[in-house]
Every structure is written in C-alpha cells, then in structure tokens.
C-alpha cells in the first residue's frame, strides 16, 4: 500500500510555456474570439481544451486560418515558410516561439550562412525540429540517436556544426555530442548546450529523488517530448515510471507493493493537474504527501513584441 507521495521540484510550467499560454489568453482578451493558433500552443491537451473553451481555434497549418485573421504561432517555433504563408494571407501574426527555441533557430541559420553543414540533434517529426530544419533545409542533417551519430557519413573536408532540440534527454544528448566530437574533431557547437534550463532541471529533479521512490508518475501529454524524457530518466535509473495526462489514467495495479510514489510534471502541464493527482492519492488513503525538495526557478520571458506593442497602444488610447 502506498504510504507516501513525494513531489518533485521543479516541475510543471516553464517560462516559455507560461509566456505562450498567456499570449493566447491576452490575445483573446484584446482582439476577441476567434484567435487562431497554429498547432497546439504547448503540448498539453488540458491547456488546449481550456483555450478552446475561451475562443481559440487550433489549426494544423497557418493556411487554414482565414485571410486577415489573428494567428498565434506555438511555442515550438516555425520555419520561415510559415511566416511567408501568413504574409500572403495578411495574417496578424503573434509569434509565441519560446526564446530558447528562437536561439537555436538563429544558431542554425548563422552556421549554415557561414558554410557549415548543421547536424541537428533531435526527434524526427517533432514540431521544434521541423521548424529548425526549415531555417536551412539544404544544409541540415538530423541525427536522432547515438547509432545515427556513429553511422553519419560526410564528404571529407565538410565543415560541421551542431545544434540540438531543447527538450531532449540531457544524458543521451551528451553521449551523441561526444560521438560527434570523437568522429569529427573540428565540429563546432553552441557555447552552452541548447537543451533548455527547464528540461535539464526537471530531469535532475527526478534523478535526485529516484533512491527515495518505488514508482514515478509523470503528468504530461503523450506528444510532450520533455515529459517523455522524464519517464526515460526514471526507467534508466531502475524505477518504474508512467506518463499520465491526469489522475483518471492512474492504474491501481502500478501501486501494488509500492510504498513511496514520486510525482512530477512536464513543462507544459499546469499545476492543478498535480493537485488532482494528489487528491486521488488522498482518496485512496495516502496522508503523507510532501515536496521532496523545494527549488525555485526565477526565469521569465516577456510577451511577444507584436502583442506588447498592441497592448501598449490600447493602454495609451484608453487613457
């Protein structure tokens, strides 16, 4: 029987997610519904449903939004071709791309412009990877794992650089970069690893608590890369782990023979989902629910410049 639940810290929303969600909320307040959002603003179904209820319309491609519509780009970033399509349709674009993702785009673009072939470490099909590859599609090679890094064949004399998706496993990415540097000693890369602070912090928080828990529950949606990596970290450390959207997906069989359960949440998961999971355990007789460790993140990002300008202009007009 479960006796104790430990809550990982930090967990949940990162600064980029907070910024993206607030962008859609403020856009709805300012422009009124509908506001179109390209892709899921962040990878969490609860967040998407909440914003839909407020008047947001989620579309797969910007071309699905009507001419002249207000369109918000998701936190994961877009290729330059997306901006071009919106310009043709005269969309009022608000780009909610996480600034840390934008940094990777800028790096990829600069490396390619300087004549480098760019190795992008990431997962094929992920929206962030699609957007980054769009910056220099003819100069970018995707490497997804160590095996692909070992198998990479290039023309002798190729000038090589690397960038990474921001939501990867810290350990696996370090191993891939190590292979690339061994095979291609002249390869260059960013001064600091591109994996974002929130992804790294949440993985380290899970690692720190593994010796204290028998099971880890990660609150996050299936398409959330950083949430899936938290599951991977626990399993790599020998602790069973499961990804759940909310408390309704908890399988009581997972808790058989378990005394201490760890709970964390991906960077796109709102904190009220953690509260709901805690309530589930309380309803099942668990009284000891406590933070494993308290860690504060003080990173904040300003709203997209397009929206800030509009809100400032509206504020001056109302005075």
What does this structure look like?
The chain has 11 helices and 12 strands. The strands form 3 sheets. The chain has a 5-stranded parallel beta sheet with strand order 10-9-11-1-12, sandwiched between helices. The model has no long low-confidence stretch (mean pLDDT 95). It is of the alpha/beta class and 319 residues long. It folds into 3 domains: 4-13 and 197-291, Cobalt-precorrin-4 Transmethylase, domain 1 (3-Layer(aba) Sandwich), CATH 3.40.1010.20; 15-97 and 301-318, Rossmann fold; 100-183, 4-hydroxy-3-methylbut-2-enyl diphosphate reductase, catalytic domain (Cobalt-precorrin-4 Transmethylase, domain 1, 3-Layer(aba) Sandwich). The termini are far apart. Helix content is 41%, strand content 17%.
Mean pLDDT score: 95
Count of beta strands: 12
Strand order of the largest sheet: 10-9-11-1-12
The ordered string of helix (H) and strand (E) elements is EHEHEEHEHEHEHEHHEHEEHEH
The H-level CATH homologous superfamily of the largest domain, spelled out, is 4-hydroxy-3-methylbut-2-enyl diphosphate reductase, catalytic domain
